[in-house]
């Protein structure tokens, strides 16, 4: 099998899989909120309401696409695309399993194993804010513009501790490659604990997960689209599939952030104290590594939902204060401690 054909199959698979997960997450979000609030949630379209995302998709595709009279049409159309594309592109460097051997050929379960995967994630992740700002400004709506400005301030503020937490993990593993970081987490740490990043970087993980919620505009950091304050923020004027791109981009971003957390801090596809490659064949091992990785990701996806329907929204001054007065100093302290520990262990 040609390398270009393998790469094409992996791209098609991961895009289709990501779309499927984003679609299912709309159902999980609604059923999860219903479970937490002691109500039923969607239960009419198919068994347990599983066809509700399909019904929502048909509705979004068939609704009239209305453009506000005084909106900047070019920016109004460009905003959702600029938001969705980085979300779909970021997952390209995240390994979703170890490897699978088919016909004697070893295939890595990763679209692109680049040596600067960490830098790629940071660069692509920072581009999503342009979609929010452009969409908010192009709508020519005061609530949309306010949502775009809030998003700019929030993402800039929280990308600093997010990037510093990632940098500390890179210092520990000595590589920018996400695959090499994942491979380094096999075995045990201090002879007892799993050799996972969360045990080597506990503070770094806490900083990362808090900043990830802010990066994904999720409660309690959903100030850019706070319904009780600014209607729906940057996508107030959007409908039809343009709104769908914003909503889908948010869920894809959740999936990418969860996969990144698993890759850096929770051993990627590795099970604690178990080496699956010694017990399984080359094909079954590849499938098992993918399933283990996805189950870990599924936990963090559910955590996103759980937090949204449990924790109240912060005030804007609290969001900014947490980022600049707490997370950034802690991230710098964590970076200093990490460098000190590495130096002492040399």
Automatic annotation (TrEMBL):
PROSITE patterns on file: COMPLEX1_ND1_1, COMPLEX1_ND1_2
Which Enzyme Commission number(s) are on file for it? 7.1.1.-
Signal sequence residues = none
Q: In which broad location class does this protein mainly occur, judging by the first location in its UniProt entry?
A: membrane
Q: Any idea what job this protein has?
A: NDH-1 shuttles electrons from NADH, via FMN and iron-sulfur (Fe-S) centers, to quinones in the respiratory chain. The immediate electron acceptor for the enzyme in this species is believed to be ubiquinone. Couples the redox reaction to proton translocation (for every two electrons transferred, four hydrogen ions are translocated across the cytoplasmic membrane), and thus conserves the redox energy in a proton gradient. This subunit may bind ubiquinone.
Localization per Swiss-Prot or TrEMBL = Cell membrane; Membrane
Record-linked HAMAP family: NDH1_NuoH
Q: How does it sit in the membrane?
A: Multi-pass membrane protein
Kindly report, in one word, the top-level EC class recorded for this enzyme.
Answer: translocase
Q: Which residues cross the membrane?
A: 6-28, 74-94, 114-134, 155-176, 196-214, 251-271, 283-307, 327-345
Gene Ontology molecular-function annotations? NADH dehydrogenase activity; oxidoreductase activity, acting on NAD(P)H, quinone or similar compound as acceptor; quinone binding
Top-level taxonomy: Bacteria, Deltaproteobacteria, Dissulfurirhabdaceae, Dissulfurirhabdus
Q: Name one GO biological process term.
A: aerobic respiration
InterPro entries from the UniProt entry: NADH_UbQ_OxRdtase_su1/FPO (IPR001694), NADH_UbQ_OxRdtase_su1_CS (IPR018086)
Reactions catalysed according to its record: a quinone + NADH + 5 H(+)(in) = a quinol + NAD(+) + 4 H(+)(out)
Quote the subunit structure annotation.
NDH-1 is composed of 14 different subunits. Subunits NuoA, H, J, K, L, M, N constitute the membrane sector of the complex.
The similarity annotation says: Belongs to the complex I subunit 1 family.
Pfam families (alphabetical): NADHdh
Protein name per the record: NADH-quinone oxidoreductase subunit H
PANTHER family (alphabetical): NADH DEHYDROGENASE SUBUNIT 1, NADH-UBIQUINONE OXIDOREDUCTASE CHAIN 1
Q: Does the keyword Oxidoreductase apply?
A: yes
Keywords per UniProt: Cell membrane, Membrane, NAD, Oxidoreductase, Quinone, Translocase, Transmembrane, Transmembrane helix, Ubiquinone
Q: Does the keyword Cell membrane apply?
A: yes
GO CC annotation: plasma membrane
């Amino acid at each position: 099998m040609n390398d270009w054909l393998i790469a094409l199959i992996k791209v098609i698979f991961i895009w289709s899989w990501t779309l499927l997960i984003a679609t299912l997450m709309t159902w999980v979000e609604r059923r999860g909120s219903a479970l937490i609030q002691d109500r039923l949630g969607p239960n009419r379209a198919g068994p347990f309401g599983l066809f509700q995302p399909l019904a929502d998709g048909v509705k979004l595709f068939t609704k009239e696409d209305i453009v506000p009279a005084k909106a900047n049409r070019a920016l109004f159309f460009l905003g959702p695309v600029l938001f969705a594309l980085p979300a779909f592109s970021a997952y390209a460097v995240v390994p979703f399993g170890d490897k699978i051997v088919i016909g004697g050929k070893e295939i890595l379960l990763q679209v692109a194993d680049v040596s600067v995967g960490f830098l790629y994630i940071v660069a692509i992740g920072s581009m999503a804010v342009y979609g929010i700002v452009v969409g908010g400004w192009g709508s020519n709506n005061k609530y949309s513009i306010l949502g775009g400005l809030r998003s700019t301030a929030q993402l800039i503020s929280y990308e600093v501790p997010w990037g510093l937490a990632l940098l500390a993990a890179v210092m520990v593993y000595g590589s920018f490659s996400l695959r090499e970081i994942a491979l380094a987490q096999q075995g045990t740490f201090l002879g007892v604990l799993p050799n996972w990043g969360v045990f080597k970087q506990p503070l770094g993980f806490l900083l990362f997960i808090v900043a990830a919620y802010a990066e994904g505009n999720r409660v309690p950091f959903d100030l850019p689209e706070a319904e009780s304050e600014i209607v729906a923020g940057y996508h107030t004027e959007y409908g039809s599939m343009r709104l769908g791109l914003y909503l889908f981009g948010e869920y894809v971003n959740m999936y990418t952030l969860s996969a990144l957390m698993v890759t850096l801090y929770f051993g990627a596809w590795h099970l604690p104290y178990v080496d699956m490659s010694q017990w399984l064949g080359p094909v079954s091992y590849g499938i098992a590594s993918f399933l283990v990785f996805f189950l870990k990701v599924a936990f963090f996806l559910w955590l996103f939902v759980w937090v949204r329907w449990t924790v109240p929204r912060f005030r804007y001054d609290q969001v900014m204060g947490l980022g600049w007065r707490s997370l950034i100093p802690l991230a710098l302290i964590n970076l200093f401690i990490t460098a000190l520990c590495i130096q002492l262990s040399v």
